Amino acid sequence: LQYQQPSIIVGRTDVVTVTPWLSPVVWEGTFNAELLDSIYLQKNISIAATVFAVGKYTMFLKDFLLTAQQHFFVGFHVHMYVFTDRPSEVPTVPLRANWKLFVRMVPNSRRWQIISARRMEIIQTLIEDELMNQTDYIFCLDVDSRFHGRWGSESLGALVAVIHPGYYKDDRSRFPYERHASSSAFIASGQGDFYYCGGAFGGNVQEVLQLTTTCRRNYEADAAKGIEAAWQEESHLNRYMWINKPTKVLSPEYLWQDFKAWEPEIRLVRFSGVVKNYAAIRPN
Ligand code: UD2
User: Is the confidence at residue 169, as pLDDT, over 80?
Assistant: First the structure.
């Protein structure tokens, strides 16, 4: 493979590309996609992805799946797991040769907070029952989103978190972490690293099993005491990622929001949340 000589002195200087604990932060312009693909394709890895479409959220599946076909791990073995209570509303989309799509039933709930938070438990069970020793990596994604650009092997790591597009320039005292000390998702003002998205995270299946098991246990322990963290499983994920530092951090290119104008450091939006009418689509 012929590729451009890497430089040790010339690179992006407008953004931080490594965390203080020495994990890479992935931005456009920091990696060679062809080189990375050639390394990972030789390993013959498989990637699972989970997406939940419960209730009216099935309306987002078509765009999500169609754009994933174009941009998500193109050339790799991808197993996409769709969890829904309305399997008849899962659209038929033409799949790439090395793609498989699995549709799994999950119950609906009267509260959207529970639908969102229970994803941790369901992903834990999926890994324990089916993916362990079968799949290498897993990414867990929000369905009300679409791909616009490459999301591929540059995102692979043991434990992968995405910087939330809404807070990455803020002081950590302003992050919407859970601030009540009674919750197991608590992070005090003056603590924490970044604010990470609940809508996209991943890693190898062993690490994501640890993450989902811990977040589920903490969420349920809180619920038994009548406590719900400010942003449900996203709060528990943030606490987990603060204690167990991600080994790879994806820039907000990996989960932008369509209502936000691009900032100067954003050269490419790869995946973004669509604008949605919460009142019309959530159960309450
Ligand atoms: C944020 C997070 C989301 C979650 C939530 C807190 C991002 C971009 N989004 O988004 O991941 O942490 O805060 O709970 O970081 N869902 C259904 N049916 C429903 C409701 C939810 O299928 O009726 C699923 C669906 O996959 C959706 C996800 O749960 O993408 C998150 O729900 P949301 O998109 O309504 O949450 P939102 O936008 O507040």
Answer: yes
| Structural domains in the chain, sorted by start | 25-281 (3.90.550.10)
**pLDDT over 90 (residue 228):** yes
**Consecutive H or E run containing 180:** none
pLDDT by residue (tens digit) across 174-188? 999 999 999 999 999
Q: What is the pLDDT of residue 283?
A: 86
| H helix or E strand, kind and range, residue 64 | helix 61-71
**Helix-strand-coil percent breakdown of the chain, rounded to 5?**
35, 20, 45
CA of 199 to the centre of ligand 1 (A): 7
**What is the atom index within ligand 1 of the atom nearest the CA of 278?**
35
ipTM over 0.90 threshold = yes
Residue 234 among the catalytic residues: yes
Q: Which of 89, 234, 253, 265 is catalytic?
A: 234
260 lines ligand 1 (CB under 6 A): no
Asked whether 99 and 69 are in contact (CB, 8 A), the reply is yes
Q: Which amino acid is at 92?
A: T
Residue position matching structure tokens 């994933």 = 68
